[in-house]
Amino acid sequence: MIHDAPDESTSESTYECLQCGAVITSDENPGKCEECGGDLHNRAMALE
Ligand SMILES: [Zn+2]
Predict the structure, then answer these.
(1) CB 4 within 8 A of CB 13
(2) 32 CA to middle of ligand 1, Å?
């Protein structure tokens, strides 16, 4: 069995800013980076 979700997954997701690299954890889509207003990438959605 592949162990792909080691974290204590609640409803929170981690988002990473594509512009400044800030990491934001939120239980809902924050939309824009609170640091620079850049687009956020949901880290839970692995790049395949
Ligand atoms: Zn940012």
Answers:
(1) no
(2) 8
Q: What is the 23 CA–ligand 1 centroid distance (Å)?
A: 8
Domain span including residue 34 = 13-42
Per-block mean pLDDT, blocks of 10 residues, the chain (48 long): 63 91 89 93 75
Does the residue 48 lie in any domain? no
For residue 28, the CA-to-ligand 1 centroid distance in Å is 17
Residue 47: inside a domain = no
Tokens (6 digits) for 14: 């981690």
Q: Is residue 7 part of a domain?
A: no
Cβ atoms of 20 and 38 within 8 Å: the answer is yes
